[in-house]
Amino acid sequence: MNIHKTFLAAALAVTVGAIGPVSAQVVGSVAELDILDGGRTANGAYLGALRVTLQDGWKTYWRAPGDAGIPPQFDWKRSTNVGSVSITWPAPDVFDQNGLQSIGYENQMVLPVEISPKNPAKPVRLKGTVDLGVCKDVCIPERLGFDHTLNAEAERNPTIAAALAKRPYSAKEARVANARCHLTPTSDGMQIEARVTMPSAGGREIAVIEPGNPELWASQTDAKRQGGTLVATSEVINASGGPFALDRSKIRITVLGANHAVDILGCSAG
User: Which end of the chain is more exposed for a tag (fewer CB within 10 A), N or C?
Assistant: First the structure.
């Protein structure tokens, strides 16, 4: 079995176990998916969005969902004339589920996507599925299908614009002076201590560390301020239990604050 899928199955099992058994009262889909059109960009790419609308009080998860969630998984293989797909993730919210931290979106998730066509003169058809974990009093898996030919002549879409406006700041925009990662072997894997020198993102700052390798998993971070530096510690493990190396240039650190979020790609040794 694919290691990443093993992680997803394990995460869903842990989440369901933490929240309670799946209730027979959950009938039908609690989530609906539609594709939004945003026309074409100046560089010829198509701008669209995947919008997942959930029943009231339900939530789904960000790409790094925390200890009590599973990330969305996208299958675009049946699409036509798609060269590449770039997803923009709006800054998520942080939830507490019976003492476990999860990261995601409540009631609605809008993910802007920019699609570069293989042939700019031909239409782009998006066809595939999204696998989600959704939670309220219970947690259940959802598989949502989509089949939509993008409208090259569509006007600016305010829903897509609002989602893009919620993207995290870049390191430059957030005035990050430096980001360093100190790596220490542990009995199960590797500890990362990330030290990010930057102005406060506001209130309680939560840091999320992504190893940059889908075969690896990073635990919930312990983050604290030391003056102008945010110090975040996490442990990275390999599902197979084997040895692994970490490429600091691929480590991604997201800081979620009360005022804004910050997306930091790569860190130096230190």
Answer: N
For residue 242, what pLDDT is reported?
A: 85
Looking at the chain, the whole-number percentage of residues with pLDDT higher than 90 is 81
Mean pLDDT for all residues in the chain: 89
Buried b (16+ CB within 10 A) or exposed e, 236-245: bbbeeeeeee
CA dihedral 168, 174, 177, 179 (to 10 degrees): -20
* Side chain identity, residue 112: P
Which strands form 261-265's sheet, in the order they lie side by side? Answer: 169-170, 261-265, 252-256, 206-210
Domain 3-165 = CATH 2.60.40.1250: yes
Q: How far is CA 184 from the centre of its chain?
A: 26
Do the domains 3-165 and 169-269 sit in the same CATH topology, yes or no?
yes
Instruction: Give the integer Cα–Cα distance in Å for 113 and 94.
Output: 23
Listed by start position, the domains of the chain span: 3-165, 169-269
Amino acid at 77: K
**Domain covering 169-269: architecture:** Sandwich (2.60)
pTM of the predicted protein model: 0.87
Pull the structure tokens for residue 19. Answer: 């929240």
